[in-house]
Every structure is written in structure tokens, then in C-alpha cells.
Predict the structure.
Amino acid sequence: MTAGDRSHRLRILISCLDRPGIIAAVTDALYQLGGNIVTADQHSEDPDQGMFFMRIVVQMPDAADRSAAQVIEHLAPLKERFRMNVRISPASRIKRMAVLVSREDHCLKELIWQCESREIPAQISLIISNHPDLTDRAVAAGIPFYHLPVETDRKQIAERRAAALIDGMDLVVLARYMQILSSPFVEPWMGRMINIHHSFLPAFIGPNPYRQAFDRGVKLIGATAHYVTADLDQGPIIEQDVQRVDHRQRVPDLKRLGRHVERMVLARAVRWHVEDRVIIHQNRTVVFP
Amino acid sequence: MTAGDRSHRLRILISCLDRPGIIAAVTDALYQLGGNIVTADQHSEDPDQGMFFMRIVVQMPDAADRSAAQVIEHLAPLKERFRMNVRISPASRIKRMAVLVSREDHCLKELIWQCESREIPAQISLIISNHPDLTDRAVAAGIPFYHLPVETDRKQIAERRAAALIDGMDLVVLARYMQILSSPFVEPWMGRMINIHHSFLPAFIGPNPYRQAFDRGVKLIGATAHYVTADLDQGPIIEQDVQRVDHRQRVPDLKRLGRHVERMVLARAVRWHVEDRVIIHQNRTVVFP
Amino acid sequence: MTAGDRSHRLRILISCLDRPGIIAAVTDALYQLGGNIVTADQHSEDPDQGMFFMRIVVQMPDAADRSAAQVIEHLAPLKERFRMNVRISPASRIKRMAVLVSREDHCLKELIWQCESREIPAQISLIISNHPDLTDRAVAAGIPFYHLPVETDRKQIAERRAAALIDGMDLVVLARYMQILSSPFVEPWMGRMINIHHSFLPAFIGPNPYRQAFDRGVKLIGATAHYVTADLDQGPIIEQDVQRVDHRQRVPDLKRLGRHVERMVLARAVRWHVEDRVIIHQNRTVVFP
Amino acid sequence: MTAGDRSHRLRILISCLDRPGIIAAVTDALYQLGGNIVTADQHSEDPDQGMFFMRIVVQMPDAADRSAAQVIEHLAPLKERFRMNVRISPASRIKRMAVLVSREDHCLKELIWQCESREIPAQISLIISNHPDLTDRAVAAGIPFYHLPVETDRKQIAERRAAALIDGMDLVVLARYMQILSSPFVEPWMGRMINIHHSFLPAFIGPNPYRQAFDRGVKLIGATAHYVTADLDQGPIIEQDVQRVDHRQRVPDLKRLGRHVERMVLARAVRWHVEDRVIIHQNRTVVFP
């Protein structure tokens, strides 16, 4: 990946049933438009009957928006012929994201930091919390902060306000947001809402995972970043990692180590999403490196 | 850990409720006997009411057996005073182990190899299998092989024969032994029978873990070595590790990578046990490094 | 990577200067021949002036040999047009390798084992050693063993005999072969001779790397697998890995841990080479995953 | 490690030549004072002629300062008898540190953050930089910032001012400080000044390590935290870690990944130092976990 001028680069994500000729057809179509392929990754589950996935970064001779329009038009017949899902996104476009948090700040801080230093090429446009604790953190970073307390009987109201606020965002990140979200809230964001789960899924689902991990005497603790679906903690996994622990670590130590792995795993998952590296298929993800 | 002459070294494992003065009392007692402490590791869960664990390697002026007897006698009053569990084992004594396998040979091979090269300072005295497949492997290594087929209605008979064969061993290792063992068979071996579980417990309990892992789209696969208890897959964990995977790996690839991590994790757990590094407490282990 | 029938699969490795249209041209050519692309990985250093690398696995309708001939013929004009280096290899062809060893057997054993279990899809056709120590190991595995002692004044003779023995092999692996090889011996094998270096290059070049590592108090030890060039230890790196150590490990312990990481790193490098995943460019490698 | 009340805890670091009876004598002395040992780690290079190292955390019945004085007095005869180096430090005492930086902020930010969240139990008392770039970062964290430009001909003046500012600190951290420090500046801080080196020492000493790593085609990049000695980059290593890379990463990507591993490695090293876990011996460290 070169730094260079990205103003004319498009990222194209394609998925369809595998059949002979897809790569040839797509790359030829881009070549016709004067595009030069910078990166092309492809994955076929099975050439016979499996799914085919492709990510292309193409340098176009024209400005980003015009190029995108041209490519969409030019790929239209292929899209129909191969019944492809196609997603096109100019590399120069900075995605806007909303972050939902509760009281813990380690994931939010890592996101702010990596967005500031452009390690994650995105912008945090607003922060929503059910607690006021992280107001200062948001203010210091110059990001609008919305405190939406979630009272038991008024959950719907809070969700409706949150839904209005996040409308138009490219991505919503639950950075240790400790509220269960309703299906109607979640559904419009399928594939664009990422959660960090404080354990190595599918182990230790449920409350107090570090206490569970301690009682079970595990030798590794982990974290999982996944897309949010209506089915809690069951959405497609984007990234996981672990940290070695031993008998010396008690529950507070596991939490401290857990915070490290959580913020790293979430930041990687968000970066990959923002760089259009992730395709969801069924309950799995293809993450192009 | 120096190589050196180990003929006069004792390994002492102690566990009891924590109280002031334990370390002083024990190390002083050993000093009285002319012992020189080579390694002393200690772990206190909580000085107030928690458990205290200690591993000492001590160089004794006398021959191993006489030293062990002396130390046992000399520590007896402390044992009573602090209500300690004490285990003493001459470092020079090569432990004898039985390995139970089914058809897959990767864990057995790693154990044979590491015992041959003394990376695991133990001797495989016999191999038992419910299949004849690995006979040649055992013969090539010069280890007695017992084929005990487990027919559904005669499981008890097979277990009884196996129990007779392993009688007197120091350790029993289930190196991918694909039969569920009965409680009466397992119970006498509590704390001396190690199993390798083909997944990162507590995730993916049950059959076909790699298929489960694939369907769930995990990004890491793992393995867990644990002591066997009557409660299947729930015994104290000794070691765990993981291997990174991605969308490219299909079930056979996950199995191949799984085999790698399984044999490494099992070999480490066996080595630690054989070197008297592991103390079990409740359902957890303290593993002294 | 699916298991499946590989008898009709070809692996194609391409490198050339990057220019627009390469992927389109190549994939279209394969499509014309009725090929279905199973995997296509590509890497461009820089679309402007950089190098372009591609690995394609393609399912051909015909038998392997005929397909290979057809593809070679069909790609010939492209080869000229883009000045491409092209390497074509039927996936079904089991590569033959010679292994050179001295006294230590850990790398040899890992290779024998992984070849036997088809984790490395290759065959060890012969073993050459400057010591007789590993004769039994070779015999047990049914592999011809040649003892070629290297006396100081007759080094050339030994090399000449070795050169004759390895003639016609696909790959030569130096699995802890502790002799320096002459340029004339090495040169014909450029890109097809792999060495395991007992340290994390470029650190600790020279003798006694574990002693050096101990004296320096490093917290990680590593190993490096690389292609052999006339310039000792400076060839293109294929794979590296490390293992965590601490103050407790003395030189013999570092060696034991080093052996683990050495055999794993070498086995991975050999597997990648054998699966045609590696392209050398200048002093670097592109390893397609 | 329990959280709990640490006001009465002392950390004791001991090193001396190994002889029989040291542990017994020290633990008995603490027991006489009513101390309860919470943690005791010990390392003997060789019971015959090697060095002996010990770290004890002891809960004392009295207030911290009085306890420390008592322990010092009480251990004095042992200190003489065994010719021990002894360091005693109340666990409740928050260490004060100065951070020297240049333009890059990733290490500084990680330190600020981990000090704020008490993951590192220390306080950053001042920041010194040869550039003004990070003024805002320091101001936002409420930490005094001193801009001391280092002009070629006035280096000595800058060092003298810096020496005056850091006087009385417990620790000085070079968090990507890109100036070579003179021996007179460094010497008084031997064992209390930590540097992060942007590579996996001893590889890639010198300028532009990521360019060197890229040209050499390494598959891992790393970072090393070490104590500063007059001999540049040669001081005792505290911690090292690596990050996997491949052919896709170009120099800017290596730098980005390097920043991650640098900040993690430095933060761990600083935490261990601040928690009195590190003993230096010759050019190595013993780091008690």
C-alpha cells in the first residue's frame, strides 16, 4: 500500500457465486476505462458451487466521483450477468462514524487517537453515551458529545434519539456500550455497526466474562470485534486476539489486560471496515489483508 | 535452570492457607538439612485468607532417596502446623507415562520425539489404543503397544484391562483418545491424567469443533490441555494456545493448523507436569514457570 | 484452499513491471482455455514503476501436462508483451527434495513427519550428511542416506559428490547443515535451496548465536528461513518467528526453545516453497498466503 | 497481585552471590518484624558460584516509612553477611518521572494514558522536548512542558538545563527522543533511564531502521526497551516484542506497525521498572513477573 495520491482511487468489493470468467471480465472492464489495478485480492470458497469474493483497488484517470459513476455504469452488465453484489467507494472519502460508549474510555481513546493520527482513515463525528462520564474526553478531542441516559422505562425514547443522531453516518461503533440495543435500532445498520466483545467468542458469553475466565483458570484471555446483529454477540466476527495470562493475574489484572486487547482488536476491526476490506457472507467475514 | 548434576535435587510442591512465616519456616528447615535452594517460586492468592503455593528446587548434600526421606521427616512438624499439602520428588527420577491414543498420531509423535530428545524428561512406558493403526509407530519407537478395541457393549471390559495396564504409572496422557472414559476409570488418576482438547475451551465443546469454528468464522483456533475429571472437558486447564486463521482456511486446513497447536500445547503441559511445576487448586492450576 | 481433486490444477507465478491491463490479459487468456481460477493473489509494489507479482491457481478442463503445455503456449504472447517471468507447475506434481544435515535431527524430523503426513506435499528423496549420526533416523523413514564426510582438505570432493546426488531434485533443504558451501555449489540452486538460520536475522550472525543472545539478555529468540545465496546468511528471507524467553533460560534452554522455533519456521518455509507460494525479487520474497 | 490497600507494603529487591541460607535468613528477618510476604520471587543463576536475585513484596504491620526504616535496620547484618545489594521501596509511593520526546507523540501518549488510568502507577512530572510540536499534548494533560532546542554548538547548554530539570525524578524515559545524549548526562541515571529503540535489537542499529528492515525483507519488525548506558543502544534490555509483516507493507506501513509495538513495549518496560520488578546485572536484566 503506497501512501501517494489517493484522490483517484476506487475500492471495489464484489461477491457472487463462483463461475469461470469473473476476474477476467471485471479486470477487463476496468482496463477499458483506463483504470490501473493497484491491488486485487480474491477468494473463492469453491470454484464449483461456492461463493466468490473480490476486492480491487483501482487507480482511475479521472476524479473520484466521475470515476465511480463510470465504473458503476460500466460494471452494470457484469453485475447482472454474474448476479454480483458490488460496492464502490472512493479511497479519498473520509468515512464518518458515531461512537457509542458507556463509562469505560479505553476503546474510545484508542479510536480517537488512531483517527487523529490517520492510522484509521476516518472521522469520529459524534459520541453518544448513556453516562456523562466521558464528556471531558470528547470535548478535549473536539467531538460533539450527547448524553442520552437510558432509563429502564424509556429505553425506546433514548434509542429513537440516538437513531436520529447517527442517521447519515457511515459506521457506528459500540466501544464498550453496555446497553442491549433493540432489533429495530440495529437492523438498518446491519454490516455497518461494530461491537467489541470483552471475550474470545464464543467463550464466556454473558456478564462478568473476566470473573468467569478467572474461575475457569484460563491461560489466555481474548476479545472479539464483530458486526452487530439482532442476535446478541452472534454477529459475523471481524477480528479476535488473545493475551497470555497465568495464575498470578486476578480479576482486576485480567480486566486490565483485557482492556489492552479490546482496544487493539476494535481498532483493527474499525480500520479494516473503513478501508473497505470486509465482506460479510452468511455469518462469516472475508477480510482482505 | 541449569543442566548440571541433578542426582541430588529435590522438587518440593507445597500448598496451604496463607499465613505469616511459611516461607521462612520451610526455607529454614531445608537450610538446617544442608540444602541449597536452587529455585523457589511462590504464589499467594491473598495474604489474608487466600491460598499459598510454593515450588522449591533444592540441592541436597546426600543421595536423592535419603534426602527425600530426610526432608519428609524434617518438614513433618511444619506440615502439621500449617496444614500443608506437600509433594516431594527427586529431580533425577524419570517419570513413567502411559499414552492413550486412537487413530491420529500427531500428539503421540510429538511426545515420543520430545521424550527421546529429553525435552520432556519422561519415558513412555506403554501405548494403548482402541485402534490398531498406530502399532507400527509404537514398534518403531520400541514402546509396547496394546490394542484394546472398545466395543459398545464391552466398554467396561476394555477399561478394566486398560486400568490394569496403566497401574503404577506416574502419568496417563490422552493424546487424542476419542473415547469417553468412565468416572471409576478416571477418578484414581485425578491430577495425573492429562487430556488435549481440540479447541480453545470453553468454546466449541462437543463434536466437530473445527466445523463449528469454521461456521462461526473465528479468526483464531486453539487447543487446551487439562487434567481429566469425571466432568468431561471441565477439568483444570494447564495450558492453552491459539493459531491465527482467516477466511481462506477451510475445515481441513483448520484441522491441520489445529494439529500443530494441539501437539505443542500437549507437549508443554506434559513437560510442566513431569517437571513438577503444576499445583491444582479447586478447578484452576498454578503453573510455576 | 479446498482439498478436492488437484489433478487438473496449475499454479502460475508471474512477475514483471507493473502496467495497466496485466491481470485482465492473463485471466482472460486462462478463461479462453476453459480454465476456472480457484485463487488469484496479486501484489503491486507501485502501479507507476514498481514490480507486479501474481499467483494464480487455475482448474483446467484437461489433464495436468497437457494443460501446462497449453497454458505456456497461450501465455507466450503476453509473456513477451509484458516481459513477464512465468513459472507454471501442476499442483498434482509431488516435488522431490534433498535434505542436508549434520548432527542435530530436530529439523530433519519435522520435515520427515510433515512430508509423511502430507502437511508438506513433497517427498524427501535423499538425505546427505557430513556425519553418520542420523543414519538410523533416515533408515527408519525409508529414505536413502549418504554420509559424505567433509575433511578440510577434501571439501571440494565432498561437494562434487553431493552435487551429483542432488542433481535433478526440485529443492535442497539445509536442515542444520553446519558446513559452509562454496559458491559454485550454491549458484545453480539459487531460489531452490533453503537454509534455516538459528537466529532472528540480521541479529547474531556468526557462531554461537544462543550464547550471544544470552550474553545480550534478549527477551525473544528467533529463527530465520531463507534462500541460500553465495553471500552467507544474506539471502532472501522466507519466514521468521520468535519465542519469548526471560532471565531464567540459560544457554541450553535457549537452544531447546530455539530448536522448536527453528523446526517450525523451516517447515513453514519449505511448505510455502513447495506449494509455489514464493517469488523472489531482488533480496526480498513475496509469499502469497 | 491484589488491588487492596497498599499503604503498608514494601517491595524489596536483593542481589548477591548465591550461598545457602539467603532465603531462609531474609524471610525469617521479615517474619520477626511481623511482616507477611505477599510475593516472593527468586532467581539463582547457579547455586555454586552464580548470582542470586530476589524480589519480595511484604505486608508490614506499620506505616510505610516506619516499616522501611525498620526493615533497613533489621536487614543490615544480613546485608553485610551476604554482601547483598538491597533496594527497598514502599509500594504506596507514586514514582515521579520525566519524559524526553522529540516530534513523534505515540510513545508519550501511551505513557500519559497509562499513567492517567493507573495502569502505570507513576506520575509524569514534566516533559522535555527539543521541538515545540507536542506542547499542546502536554498542556492538555496538565503536564509542564519544557522546550529545550538542541542547537549543534549549544548541545551542552541544553543538556545542562535538562539535567537541572530532571534532578530529583525517580525515572527518566526517552520516548522517541532523537538526540544522542552525552555520557556525563547519562551516567548519574544509570539504571533509571529507559529508552525505546525502534527495532528489535541487536538488529538494525543505526538510522532508518524501517527502511533497513524493508530492504532486507524481514517478516517481523520489533522494538526494544532498554536502560540507557553511555554505549548507545547497548544497555540492558528490559522488554522486546515483534509484529508480523509481509511483502505488502511498505516503509510507511512498517513505521505505523512499528509505532504500535514501540508504545506497547515501552509502556510495559516503564510499568515493570515503576513496580520495582527489574534488577540489572552486568548487561542483562532480571524482570520478575
About this structure: Residues 251-274 of chain C form the longest helix (24 residues).
